[in-house]
């Protein structure tokens, strides 16, 4: 599939996303695993996320998490939106 159409899109403005819970190359803490899907002591808690440096005029965010290893085979997407531009996420809906 050609990705030529991507050249026509406006350049995306970057901003910083940080987390107290997500560490590069480390497995999530057990609380972030799914008890609903049978992980013993899993609490289905979403990892903390925080952001800064958004483009001027940003009013809200839509945040999704995609788990490629989810047992559903669909990636079990999670989402929280709309979120005010000064918010941080400690639990997804």
From TrEMBL:
Gene3D superfamilies: PEBP-like. It holds the Pfam family PBP. This is Phosphatidylethanolamine-binding protein.
């Amino acid at each position: 599939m050609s990705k030529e159409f991507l050249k026509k899109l406006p350049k995306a403005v970057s901003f910083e996303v940080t987390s107290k819970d997500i560490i590069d190359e480390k497995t999530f803490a057990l609380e972030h695993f799914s008890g609903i899907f049978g992980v013993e002591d899993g609490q289905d808690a979403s990892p903390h996320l925080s952001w800064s440096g958004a483009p001027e005029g940003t009013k809200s965010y839509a945040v999704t998490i995609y788990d490629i290893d989810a047992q559903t085979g669909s990636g079990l997407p999670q989402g929280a939106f709309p979120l005010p531009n000064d918010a941080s996420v400690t639990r997804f809906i």
